[in-house]
Amino acid sequence: MNRRRFLCLAAAAATPVLAETGAPLTQVWQGTAMGSAARITLSGVEGPRAQRIFAQIARELDRIEAVFSLHRDSALTRLNRDGRLNWPGADMLAVFALSDRVHHATGGAFDPTIQPLWQALARGQDPQPARALLGWPDIRVAQDEIRLPRPGMALSFNGVAQGYAADRIAALMRGAGLRDVLIDTGEISALGTRPDGTPWRARIETPAGAALRDVALRDRALAVSAPSGTRIGPQGTQAHILDPLGRAPRWTLAAVAAPSAALADALSTGLCVMDRPAIATALAALPDAEILALI
Question: Inter-axis angle of helices 89-105 and 47-68, to 10 degrees?
Answer without folding.
Answer: 70
